[in-house]
Input
Amino acid sequence: MMLLGLSLIIMLLFGFPFMVTLLGSLILYIFVYMPDFAPRMIITMVQQVITGVTPPALVCVPLFILSASIITAGESAGRLVRMIKVFVGHLPGGLLITTNASCTLFGAVSGSTQATVAAIGGTMRPMLLDAGYKSSFTLGLIINSSDIAFLIPPSIGFIVYGVATSTSIGMLFLSGIIPGLMILVMFSIYCYVYSKIKKVGTLPKASNAERLTAIKDGLPVMGFPFIIVGGIYTGIFSPTEAAAAAVLYSLILEVIIYKSLTFDIIVDVFLQTGVITGVVFILVGAGQAFSFLIGFLQLPDQFLPPLFGTAPSMLKVIGIIVVVYFVACMFVDPIVAIFILSPIFQPYVVGAGVNPILLGTLVTLQAAIGSATPPFGCDIFTAQLIFRRPYLEVIGHSLPFLLILILATIILIAFPQIALFLPNMALGG
Output
C-alpha cells in the first residue's frame, strides 16, 4: 500500500484533479502488484465504478445540484442575505452573524459546502471587507460557516452516507437540522465576541420599512426548507421527489417571480450541473472501486482488529471512527472518504450497537470539517479559485472555527439526542 499512498500524495501535490489521482493510483497499483491479473482487475474496477453510481437514491444528487445552480445564478442568495442583514446587521458582529445564518439557510437549498462558499461568500465578502474585517478572517468565516450546509438537508454528504450504508436518507436529513442550528449559534456567539473586542462591523439599524421590504423580497426563498424538510417529514415526498420539487420551485422562483434568468443562463446552468454531477459521480464510482480493492486485499482484517480490540464499547467505536474520518477528510474528498471507509467500519458499528443515524450525523460533520481543513480541504481551494487569494491567507483564521466544530462533535457524542430527537419524532418515538 506504500506505492498507493505515495502516488496519491505526489499526484495531489502536482495538482491533478482528485478523481484522476484516485483512479490513476488504483491503475498503477494493479499493474505493479498484480501484473498477471491486471486486465481482469481493470475490468472489475470499471464494473465497480458503474456499481457505485447505480443506486436509485443517487438520482436526487443531480437534482439538488441543479436546484442550487439555479438559485446561485439568480437573485435568491442576495435576497436571503438582505433579509437576514436588516434584522441583525446593527448588532456587534451583525454582518458575521448574517454570513453564518445565510450559509445555514442556503444549505437548505444547495446541500453543498462549495456552492455555499460561492453563493454566500461572493455576496458577503465585499461587505465584510468594507466593514473593516481582515481578509483572512472573512475567508476563514466563509469556508467554515459553509460547513453547516453539509448538515442542513438536502446534504449531499447524507445522501452519499445513506447509499454507502443503506441508512434512511430521510432520517439522516432530519438528524442534521438541530446540530446544524447548534453550530450556527456557536459560530454566532464567537463572532459577536470577536466583533465586540475588535469594535468593527456594526451597521446602522434598519427601519421597519426596510425590514418589511426585505422580508417581502426574501420570504419566497424560505419556501425551500418547507418543501424539502417539511415534505420529507410529513411523508409527502421521498428525498428524490423532494429534490424534483426543489428544482421546480427554484425555476418558478427565479424565472417567474424574480425574472432573473434568461433562456441562455438557464442553458448554462444545466450544462454546469452536468459537469458538476459528472465529477461527483466519478468520485462516488472511484470511491466504490477503491473500497472494493481494499476489501479484496483484506487490509481491514490486518489493521482494524488491533485498533478496535475485542468487543469494543460503543463509545470506543464512535471515537475511533470520528477521528479516522476527521483525519481522512483533511486529505481526500469527503464523498470518497465516506464511500471507502463506511463499508470497512460497518461490522464494528453493527457489533457495538451504534445508532446508524447518530453515526451518520457525526461522520457527515467530520466530512464537513475536513472540507475546510488543511492541507487538502476542498472548500479551501474553492475559496482560492473564487476570491483569488493565496492558500495561507485562506486558512489563516480557521483555527477558532475548527475548535468550535470539534467542540460540537464532542457535544453530539455526549448528548446524542441532539441529533436523534427529530428522527425519533418522525418515527413516533
